[in-house]
Amino acid sequence: MKTTEDELLMPGHGMCPGCGAAIAVRQIMKILGKETVILLPPGCIAPATTKEDAFKFRIPAVHIGLAHGAAIAAGVSAALEVKGMRNVTVLPLIGDGGTADIGLQALSAAAERNDNILYVCIDNEAYMNTGMQGSASTPMGAYTTTTPFGAMAPLGKDRPKKDLFKIISDHEALYAATACPSYLADFRRKFEKAKHIHGFRYIHVLCPCPTGWGFPTGKTVEMGRLAVKTGIFVLAEAKLGQIKVTNKVKRRIPIRAYFRLQSRFRHLKDEHIKTIQEHVDRRWEAYMRCLEA
């Protein structure tokens, strides 16, 4: 696997200790290299890396609006095409709120047009930069400031997480994938593959967040691995809508092992965990049928 020796995300950025997004972005930069333009909406990454006195990328970065990240990326890509700069990767790095909620319309349109961008969803499963509000990517059972638990809402978030990977796969995009930096070989392979495709590509990256999820900063990699081993997050890829699971877990472990390490699930009772486990099992079985197709 080819990675550049250069560190294009410099040290001294303002992301939290143990931040899964920081680990992911550093690796993405090493794979894509200097011929990259980053587009950053409001979120965790933008204020932590692009302050006036502390710009932390060694490549161009553009601040953009939250609702139209994919549309602006398409415009940047078109401008580069006019200039004959076809080897530059246009990389919108957008959180789950700006992808699953506010920016979904622009994302869907970019996928349908087959715009030449590599759209990356940095998924820490809530609006962490503004105080841990719930998003459509927040998993069932998680506490956030807008999905509190109580007598009327014992689960906290009582709806399943939106499966953006499958939504984009249904657009028959040239390439779509899920990835997590806890599985680095799989992560690097997918970004290397996406780098060399001309057209619309989408990679959904699970980025464990110690601050919002409530786990010790030294357990970020473990959290990502547990998400995969429990089947809560499935590593997969799709070409023109044909889904393939890229890391089939031979023996899944119960979701309780994942939940007990995070304070956002601490309110759940046994019957709640059973309900969520049943949902995870159904979703896992649906993905496993992709292996048999």
What keywords describe this structure?
alpha/beta; Rossmann fold; two-stranded antiparallel ribbon; 15% strand
Describe, in plain words, how this protein is organized in 3D.
With 293 residues, the chain is α/β, with parallel strands linked by helices. It has one domain (20-292): Thiamin diphosphate (ThDP)-binding fold, Pyr/PP domains (Rossmann fold), CATH 3.40.50. It contains eleven helices and ten strands. The strands form two sheets. An eight-stranded mixed β-sheet has the order 4-1-5-6-8-7-9-10, sandwiched between helices. Helix 1 (20-32) packs across helix 7 and helix 3 runs parallel beside helix 5 (104-113). The two termini are 29 Å apart.
